Amino acid sequence: MKFFKYIFTGVVFGIVMAKSEAMSWYRIQEMFRFQSFHMYGIIGTAVFCGVIAVFLIKKVEVKDLNGQPVRFQNKDKNWRKYIIGGTIFGLGWALTGACPGPIFVGIGYGYTGMVVVTIGALTGTYLYGVVKDKLPHWFA
Prior knowledge:
The structure is a single chain. By secondary structure, this protein is an all-alpha fold. α1 crosses α5 and α5 packs antiparallel against α6. The radius of gyration is 18 Å and the shape is globular. It starts with a helix and ends in a 9-residue tail after the last helix. The relative contact order is 0.10.
């Protein structure tokens, strides 16, 4: 029962992703081909809600589970690494038809091909963690 709220939140997230067609490979391809506003509307709504949530968290001074105030750190101003990272993320998103959230929703929906995508994503993340200290990080 300790993790019920997380499981419940994940199930609700999956239902919302499936019903909004945000995990649809077809909808994602439409977005990357600039053929439909559907995904841009979903992403724009999420960004708008996030901005409002961060504003309210700062205004009301929300506390975390340990009673400490939630603090936001300033982001690094080096925009080049965000451009490069976003490009790599976008290419993976376009090639697989899924970003991290919809990968798991797709598995739950029965799209067995997403298992291969999950293995690739987890392997890539692990390998980056292994070699990141050896990489040049020119843009860091």
